[in-house]
Amino acid sequence: MLPSLRALAPLLLCAALAAGCRAREDTRSADRLVLRYQPLGPDPAPFRALVAAFERESGVEVEVQALPNAADLAHQLLVTSLGAGGQDVDVFVLDVVWVAELARAGWLADLSDAFPPARVREEFLAGPAGAVVQGGRTFAVPWYVDVGLLYYRKDLVPEPPRTYAALAAAIRAARAEAPGIAGFLWQGRQYEGLSCNFFEALWGHGGAALDGDRLRLDTPAAREALGHLRRLVADGLSPRSVVTAAEEDARRAFQEGRAVFMRNWPYAWPLLQDPASKVRGKVGVAPLPGADGPAPGALGGWQLAVSSRAPAARRAAAIRLVAHLTSPDANAVLAIAYGRNPARHASYEDPRIRAEAPFIAALLPRVEAARARPVTPYYMLAADALQGELSAAVSGLRSPAEALARAQAQADAIAGVER
Ligand code: GLC
Questions:
Q1: pTM across the whole model
Q2: Ligand 1 site-directed mutation target among 97, 143, 147, 196, most atoms within 8 Å of CB
Q3: Secondary element (H or E) of residue 1
Q4: Could you tell me which of 382, 407, 34 has the C-alpha nearest to residue 225?
Q5: Which of the chain's termini has less CB crowding within 10 Å, N or C?
Q6: pLDDT digits (tens, 9 = 90+) for 114-135
């Protein structure tokens, strides 16, 4: 029996829509790619040169579009455009904690042919390789890797502190010499940077955030960790302004010589050594302190992915661009010009990096010891709920216990819905 036209209507509508989509896809040819990324530093020239070299070699033109530096805003913009079926971007950056979510949504092209999972695991550090290979397929290529570090003023602190108690003592001692200087700067604004600072404090208190595949936020170690962050502000060891600070707020204040300690990523190093920096030559870097000894820094970092919406020819060109931008030569440019740590093992032996970015080369043990935030496809949703609660607690609006109980309830509801 032939199906009635009415029964076929939805199919016809889909076909018409698909044709419409294809027609739109074809408006941009395979020799024009759109790349969306976050600017790497104040001087765009080295990155532009890297892109220009690709354009020359491939004959493909690359339109570079900037995403905001704040990780959450960048996430929102990408998810909005990809979720709406947008074909306005071919290659884009992904934070290490987004890959699982976006791969599951079907928005990332499978790159396994060009970047076989076994090769990715061999060439790249375990952290980023583990993030980009999901379910035995490669969905992105590690671009650079981040780790949370403690920056300190060598001229005011004889030895970097290994414990929270030693950090407090060092701040008090430094203030006796430099009255009015702030203590410890970190990222307390309501955004993903606060999640990183919280997980570091949690690990520093011997806690863990994942139990099987369940996010565990309401535990004694988590309450101690959040209480510790709150007390840093309440006791004046950190200025009140940290509750609205992101990485760049902390970096600028530290660079102006206004604080003894700062928690930040490696990118801050070359900027602190700038000839105009007030702390040039006066800064040391150490692992973050913990309750009983050094704590791991959070694993951060960015990957390059190709949109699954890009039609085949453009996708092939996009994969070539990803290969170019993640090559050992590109690793060297990012390390030397922008203080970004390569995600590739071999780059730590690259003589260019060892000679011109010795700080980056020396960070290998820190990067290898970095600890991942919980890897789940619903991480970003749960993190959004968590950030609101963490922010309320560090600002003193809610007790750590209450904030974490609420975060746990929201994370469970999200996981329940997602499973
Ligand atoms: C850095 C890290 C990223 C993290 C973000 C938080 O960009 O590389 O992983 O999510 O900071 O602000």
A1: 0.91
A2: 196
A3: none
A4: 407
A5: N
A6: 999 999 999 999 999 999 999 9
